[in-house]
User: Which sequence fits this backbone?
């Protein structure tokens, strides 16, 4: 049996020190994904560094109106935070559409961003998976791939990122704050998760030993409205088949600000820049919204079992954007 | 003697309820005999081939590992007429997930690590795991599950269909389904002085005992089986499954008590599943709705290990008068895990297809689907010509229609909106046969006023212990708290398994007889009872299993209201209502749970559940509870279960029919019919997930 060292870190510096020089170390947040993966033999860490006691469990408002969400803020607490509910309904809705009440009570903000794909081939050590064992192949490419990617995938990996939270954050121009051996740095959330290309074992741009300390949520222009909508196999406790997060500011019937992202379609939250560009500065009709959505989804390359995702995502986005841009 | 008899049907609370909610009730892998060690299987990662070599050195080098059993080292097993239990006997791999080795260690974690450290080399062979309706390997089995003939034909169904004024010719597909009881299959096994004791999670201890005695070449008296509490089975624990054989092998090999709990993910490939079924249903009718032809053809898979053919065309032999009919099965033996019983095998997928087709016929005729069913009520069982002992399907439909608010339903599909949802309602009939097996039982009257019933029944969560106590109290004319019922361990009077909705009927018959015999003996007595009490015994061999001149089935009607999201294709069921005619209901509380449990399982079948086989590896994909979606609370709507008072003197002394399975039978069809009514689109493949239903 493989021995496991458990360390409880009291500060970011302590956590980083415990990680240093140990490629098989893992930071432990809520553990809702990592512990599952350890049971499955997918993750085999030598050291678990418990970061849930770090002073990163607050949501604070900055002088410029931005919100800084601490890395260890629980999903339930974030979803219910008054400022989040008031200013970023899309974020609250995304969180509440994920997992179950019990899981949301322990899952953390940073852990949610770092969760691994739920691809069944990734989770089964008896199957080929380039994400788990580089070079072993992709079982899902020609396998059971109803749940897999239609955008941005490669022949090496067709997995999707399962987070709902990250999709909302992508639409909100959130920024990920990290601490690491070389000091702190920030990365835009839309650049934090990678596309698989030829190295799907790298989910994100985080470096070994780096620790997410928080997520910065910039203020939205006044009057911005936002929504999250997710399609799934059952009424709760299921990952998105497709989802859409959108935040829109309308002035005089014209789109003045727009952020749109898809979930369930790709290896990362899929920011729909083409859709945004087509709608920004326009007074959108339903037909224009549909064209704008199609402009983004034209790049989709469905696999054998998941062509439905393209039309599902299209209808979700048209409905959400239609409701947010409708004349009031 | 107590004065107040407890009324049959009273909603008596579960006798073991407190023990269960406080954790005091012990399940099979919660026993801890001294020296207990743990076993963890190594499942095959190929679908067909042989094991060329097994390198156990790394596993054995781990501290705390006692042994790694392989086909070379495992004790030999005798033949027990069930090849799925011949584990670790040879190097052949018949399907993905077949156990090729078994690690045994001092701790569970070490056993798991050791299993993971075993290096297996296979000579794999090309495999075939994909069922198609035109598979060249399809054959017509003589017999299907339940001992039914594979094919039955009456009249000229093809000719009558060709001549019919109104015709429906449709195909349906039901995917593989998994039982997934809450308690995974597990066992604790120990050998002492050449005798074997197992604590097993099973639906029938005497069945386990008989099989283990054969496998290990022991007289039955030297095998003891304890199944005191069982966390569900739904058929997957009906006969012994490989986990108990593996535990017993490991205990014999190591000389230590061995505990083995199958990981959830390995259940799907080791304990049976509901085989996928492909249906073609042809219904021909006159313009007034009278059926002239009924053809139900089923294609399904079985394994290469053992033949099991889901009898999905059999319920069509019971349901409707049709003049001419053909019901037939074809099976394809694939390199897949062996399918087995899952709640209402045959009836569940068969009635999904038949009752969906009847709804399609009603639409084609422009006729109300309830009236269509009523119009085709048979005067006797269509296939056998035997009179029904009782059949109150029409009453169930009428009662359900009244309770559900069916009257005035607008039959037009796709016209009711509520926001972005389309709303529809649907109905389907249900049937399940009355099965019963012989059983033994004793009852003892003690001088202190206590009555003790002894019978090796199994309470798999149904409330059997409670209902048997009620049956005894009723027959004895005493209060239920004067009766103690001992079940769940071999050595008690031999009893059949909890399956086929036959448990209560079979056990209750024996308990009732024993109690009535005791009452007679007590009436004849004059003096005080002896210190050890007075015991009456019974064995219903020859009576309970006597051939009945009647066709005996329970019937029911299912109603559903479904909402379909026009944006996403998500289906949400808003209401489910079932009305059952199942003889006398013996405990209103536990019966309601059984009916509702079946309906929730049918809801899962309709909306979310579906196993997928990975063509490349031959494995079931996504086979844990994160990947295999059973309904979550938010999926389960307002559910009502009702029953009508049905008197039937041709059943058993209690006048009861089984209720464990009929709740699932018509549910999926009722939901599917409601989805059609909502959308105007007929989806003929389950489950009704957005990839299929997205409009």
Assistant:
């Amino acid at each position: 049996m493989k021995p496991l060292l458990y360390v409880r870190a009291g500060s970011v510096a302590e956590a980083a020190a415990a990680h240093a020089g140990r490629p098989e170390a893992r930071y432990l947040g809520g553990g809702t994904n990592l512990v599952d993966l350890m049971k499955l033999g997918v993750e085999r860490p030598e050291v678990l560094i418990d970061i849930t006691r770090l002073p990163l469990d607050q949501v604070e408002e900055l002088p410029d109106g931005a919100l800084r969400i601490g890395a260890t803020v629980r999903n339930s607490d974030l979803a219910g935070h008054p400022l989040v509910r008031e200013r970023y309904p899309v974020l609250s809705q995304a969180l509440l559409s994920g997992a179950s009440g019990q899981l949301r009570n322990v899952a953390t903000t940073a852990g949610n961003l770092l969760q691994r794909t739920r691809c069944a081939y990734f989770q089964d050590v008896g199957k080929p998976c380039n994400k788990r064992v580089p070079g072993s192949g992709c079982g899902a490419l020609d396998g059971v791939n109803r749940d897999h990617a239609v955008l941005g995938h490669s022949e090496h990996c067709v997995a999707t990122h399962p987070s709902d939270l990250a999709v909302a954050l992508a639409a909100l121009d959130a920024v990920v704050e990290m601490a690491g051996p070389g000091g702190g740095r920030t990365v835009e959330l839309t650049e934090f998760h990678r596309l698989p290309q030829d190295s799907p074992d790298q989910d994100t741009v985080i470096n070994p030993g780096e620790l997410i300390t928080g997520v910065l949520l910039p203020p939205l222009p006044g009057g911005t409205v936002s929504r999250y909508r997710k399609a799934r196999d059952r009424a709760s406790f299921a990952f998105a088949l497709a989802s859409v997060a959108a935040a829109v500011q309308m002035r005089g019937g014209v789109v003045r600000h727009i952020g749109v992202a898809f979930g369930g379609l790709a290896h990362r939250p899929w920011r729909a820049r083409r859709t945004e560009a087509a709608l920004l500065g326009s007074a959108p009709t339903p037909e224009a919204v549909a064209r704008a959505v199609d402009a983004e989804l034209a790049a989709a390359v469905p696999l054998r079992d998941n062509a439905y995702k393209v039309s599902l995502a299209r209808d979700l986005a048209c409905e959400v954007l239609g409701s947010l841009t409708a004349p009031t | 003697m107590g004065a107040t008899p407890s009324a049959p049907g009273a909603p008596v609370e579960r006798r073991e309820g407190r023990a269960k909610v406080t954790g005091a009730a012990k399940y099979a892998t919660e026993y801890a005999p001294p020296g207990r060690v743990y076993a963890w299987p190594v499942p095959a990662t190929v679908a067909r081939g042989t094991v060329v070599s097994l390198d156990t050195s790394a596993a054995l080098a781990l501290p705390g590992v006692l042994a790694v059993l392989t086909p070379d080292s495992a004790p030999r097993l005798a033949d027990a007429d069930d090849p799925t239990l011949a584990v670790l006997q040879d190097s052949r791999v018949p399907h993905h997930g077949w156990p090729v080795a078994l690690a045994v260690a001092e701790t569970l974690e070490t056993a798991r690590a050791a299993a993971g450290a075993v290096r297996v080399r296979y000579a794999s062979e090309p495999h075939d795991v994909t069922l198609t309706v035109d598979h060249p390997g399809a054959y017509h089995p003589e017999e299907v599950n339940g001992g039914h003939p594979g094919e039955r034909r009456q009249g000229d169904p093809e000719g009558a269909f060709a001549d019919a004024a109104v015709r429906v010719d449709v195909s349906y597909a039901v995917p593989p389904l998994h039982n997934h009881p809450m308690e995974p299959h597990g066992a604790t096994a120990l050998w002492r002085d050449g005798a074997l004791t197992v604590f097993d999670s099973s639906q029938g201890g005497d069945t386990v005992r008989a099989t283990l005695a054969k496998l290990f070449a022991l007289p039955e008296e030297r095998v003891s089986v304890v199944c005191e509490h069982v966390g569900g089975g739904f058929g997957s624990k009906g006969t012994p499954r490989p986990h108990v054989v593996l535990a017993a092998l490991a205990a014999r090999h190591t000389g230590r008590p061995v505990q083995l709990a199958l990981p959830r993910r390995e259940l799907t490939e080791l304990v049976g599943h509901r085989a996928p079924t492909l249906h073609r249903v042809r219904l021909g009718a006159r313009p007034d709705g009278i059926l002239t032809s009924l053809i139900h053809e089923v294609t399904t898979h079985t394994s290469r290990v053992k033949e099991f053919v889901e009898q999905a065309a059999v319920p069509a032999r019971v349901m409707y008068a049709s003049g001419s009919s053909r019901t037939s099965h074809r099976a394809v033996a694939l390199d897949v895990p062996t399918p087995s019983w899952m709640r209402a095998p045959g009836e569940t997928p068969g009635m999904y297809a038949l009752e969906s087709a009847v709804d399609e016929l009603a639409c084609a005729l422009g006729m109300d689907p309830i009236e269509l069913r009523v119009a085709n009520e048979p005067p006797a069982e269509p296939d056998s010509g035997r009179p029904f002992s009782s059949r109150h399907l029409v009453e169930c439909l009428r009662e359900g229609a009244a309770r559900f608010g069916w009257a005035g339903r607008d039959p037009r599909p796709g016209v009711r909106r509520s926001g972005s949802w389309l709303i529809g309602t649907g109905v389907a009939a249900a049937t399940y046969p009355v099965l019963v097996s012989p059983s033994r039982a004793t009852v003892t009257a003690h001088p202190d006023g206590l009555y003790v019933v002894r019978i090796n029944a199994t309470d798999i969560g149904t409330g059997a212990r409670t209902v048997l106590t009620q049956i005894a109290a009723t027959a004895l004319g005493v209060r239920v708290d004067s009766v103690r019922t001992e079940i769940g361990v071999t050595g008690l009077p031999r009893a059949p398994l909890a399956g086929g909705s036959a448990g209560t009927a079979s056990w209750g018959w024996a308990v009732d007889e024993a109690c009535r015999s005791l009452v007679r003996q007590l009436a004849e007595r004059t003096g005080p009872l002896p210190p050890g009490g007075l015991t009456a015994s019974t064995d219903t061999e020859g009576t309970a299993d006597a051939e009945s001149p009647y066709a005996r089935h329970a019937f029911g009607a299912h109603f559903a209201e479904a909402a379909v999201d026009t944006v996403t294709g998500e289906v949400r069921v808003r209401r489910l209502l079932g009305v059952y005619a199942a003889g006398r209901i013996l405990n209103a509380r536990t019966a309601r749970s059984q009916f509702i449990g079946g309906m929730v399982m049918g809801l899962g079948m309709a909306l979310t559940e579906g196993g997928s086989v990975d063509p490349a590896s031959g494995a079931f994909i996504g086979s844990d509870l994160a990947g295999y979606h059973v309904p979550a609370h938010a999926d389960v709507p307002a559910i009502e279960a009702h029953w009508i008072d049905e008197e039937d003197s041709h059943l058993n002394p209690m006048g009861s029919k089984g209720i464990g399975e009929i709740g699932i039978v018509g549910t999926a069809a009722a939901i599917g019919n409601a989805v059609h009514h909502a959308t105007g689109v007929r989806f003929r493949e389950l489950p009704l997930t957005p990839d299929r239903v997205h409009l």
Q: What stands out?
A: Chain A touches chain B through 36 residues (CB under 8 Å). The first strand of chain A starts at residue 5 and ends at 8. Chain A has a mean pLDDT of 96. The two ends of chain A are 63 Å apart (CA to CA).
